[in-house]
């Protein structure tokens, strides 16, 4: 009778809550179904049916994202057990039910899924036997929407004992759904329709031909610019300081830059691969750098603007173990540091339009 009363009470609370959602903004109700099975309920395995389908209702209050409290009423199935009494084996077959109350601890792992755990107490009834036992549960909830959650859980009711059977434990695995009260979506207010303002006809103003624009007056503007250039080329054959025709062609843009901007200065550094001795490579790198400088001077570049050096096989840009890598290391690097120069630019100001 007590269990039936508890189910009726919980159902009444749920029904009343549905009628007063605004007063239960943090309350939820739900139901679940699953499978229950017993431990330590059968003295002998024969003539024992200690598992069954199960169902239940629950109602909870969520104080914040982490903490709540939950009341549950579960029917744990029709369980057939056997036990020893006065030296003889007895059999019992009754409905098992439980009323539980426990704080609920939640941990959101992302915006859609929460893990939860409950530890509390339960009043259990089996036929005429009853007991208050500890209970605990773990599970996960998935937020289907703002109002609906789905959950899966495992709950254990520990050590029911009525003086006849001793230490019966009940396990419940279930899935369920819960509905949040007071979480109604905001109503969309209709947009008020207004009559458009009457359109007034506007008489066009007479068009006046614009006066001819004045002739532009050239003005002189001084501009400061910066320029930087770095040129890397593989320009030499093996053991040679003579520029190839391709190398001479590659330096034409550099020559044009140095001739156009007299303020520019260039640093010319020669390099070799690792073939040969270090002293020989050092001398060869200087000869290669000087060969480039001589070619620039032949084409009109001021020699005072050039700095020439050679570093031999230092600072390779590729491996010296391959033919292609050695070819890349036989190079001359020319660096033109940033410089400033001034040029006169003639600009024409835009004519001022005549008034209309």
Automatic annotation (TrEMBL):
<feature type="region of interest" description="Disordered">
    <location>
        <begin position="194"/>
        <end position="215"/>
    </location>
</feature>
<keyword id="KW-0732">Signal</keyword>
<dbReference type="InterPro" id="IPR036737">
    <property type="entry name" value="OmpA-like_sf"/>
</dbReference>
<keyword id="KW-0626">Porin</keyword>
<keyword id="KW-1134">Transmembrane beta strand</keyword>
<keyword id="KW-0813">Transport</keyword>
<dbReference type="InterPro" id="IPR000498">
    <property type="entry name" value="OmpA-like_TM_dom"/>
</dbReference>
<keyword id="KW-0406">Ion transport</keyword>
<dbReference type="Pfam" id="PF01389">
    <property type="entry name" value="OmpA_membrane"/>
</dbReference>
<dbReference type="InterPro" id="IPR011250">
    <property type="entry name" value="OMP/PagP_B-barrel"/>
</dbReference>
<dbReference type="InterPro" id="IPR050330">
    <property type="entry name" value="Bact_OuterMem_StrucFunc"/>
</dbReference>
<protein>
    <submittedName>
        <fullName>OmpA family protein</fullName>
    </submittedName>
</protein>
<feature type="compositionally biased region" description="Low complexity">
    <location>
        <begin position="195"/>
        <end position="206"/>
    </location>
</feature>
<dbReference type="Pfam" id="PF00691">
    <property type="entry name" value="OmpA"/>
</dbReference>
<keyword id="KW-0812">Transmembrane</keyword>
<comment type="similarity">
    <text>Belongs to the outer membrane OOP (TC 1.B.6) superfamily. OmpA family.</text>
</comment>
<feature type="signal peptide">
    <location>
        <begin position="1"/>
        <end position="25"/>
    </location>
</feature>
<dbReference type="InterPro" id="IPR006665">
    <property type="entry name" value="OmpA-like"/>
</dbReference>
<keyword id="KW-0998">Cell outer membrane</keyword>
<keyword id="KW-0472">Membrane</keyword>
<feature type="domain" description="OmpA-like">
    <location>
        <begin position="223"/>
        <end position="340"/>
    </location>
</feature>
<dbReference type="InterPro" id="IPR006664">
    <property type="entry name" value="OMP_bac"/>
</dbReference>
């Amino acid at each position: 009778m007590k269990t039936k009363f508890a189910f009726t009470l919980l159902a009444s609370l749920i029904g009343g809550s549905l009628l007063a959602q605004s007063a239960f903004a943090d309350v939820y109700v739900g139901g679940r179904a699953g499978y229950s099975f017993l431990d330590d309920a059968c003295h002998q395995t024969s003539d024992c049916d200690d598992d069954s389908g199960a169902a239940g209702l629950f109602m909870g209050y969520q104080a914040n994202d982490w903490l709540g409290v939950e009341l549950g009423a579960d029917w744990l199935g029709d369980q057939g057990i056997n036990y020893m009494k006065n030296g003889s084996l007895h059999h019992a077959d009754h409905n098992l039910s439980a009323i539980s109350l426990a704080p609920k601890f939640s941990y959101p792992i992302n915006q859609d899924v929460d893990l939860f755990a409950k530890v509390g107490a339960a009043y259990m009834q089996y036929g005429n036997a009853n007991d208050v036992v500890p209970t605990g549960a773990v599970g996960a909830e998935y937020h289907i929407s703002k109002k609906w959650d789905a959950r899966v859980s495992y709950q254990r009711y520990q050590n029911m004992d009525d003086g006849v059977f001793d230490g019966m434990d009940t396990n419940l695995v279930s899935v369920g759904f819960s509905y949040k009260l007071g979480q109604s979506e905001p109503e969309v207010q209709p947009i008020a329709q207004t009559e458009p303002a009457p359109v007034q006809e506007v008489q066009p103003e007479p068009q006046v031909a614009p006066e001819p624009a004045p002739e532009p007056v050239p003005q002189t503007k001084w501009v400061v610019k910066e320029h930087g250039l770095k040129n890397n080329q593989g320009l030499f054959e093996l053991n040679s300081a003579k520029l190839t025709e391709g190398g001479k062609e590659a330096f034409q843009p550099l020559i044009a830059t140095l001739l156009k901007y007299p303020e520019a200065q260039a640093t010319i550094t020669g390099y070799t691969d690792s073939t040969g001795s270090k002293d020989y490579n050092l001398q060869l790198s200087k000869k290669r750098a000087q060969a480039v400088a001589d070619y620039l001077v032949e084409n009109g570049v001021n020699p005072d603007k050039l700095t020439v050096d050679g570093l031999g096989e230092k600072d390779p840009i590729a491996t010296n173990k391959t033919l292609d890598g050695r070819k890349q290391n036989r190079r001359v690097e020319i660096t033109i540091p940033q410089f400033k120069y001034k040029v006169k630019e003639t600009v024409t100001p835009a004519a001022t339009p005549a008034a209309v």
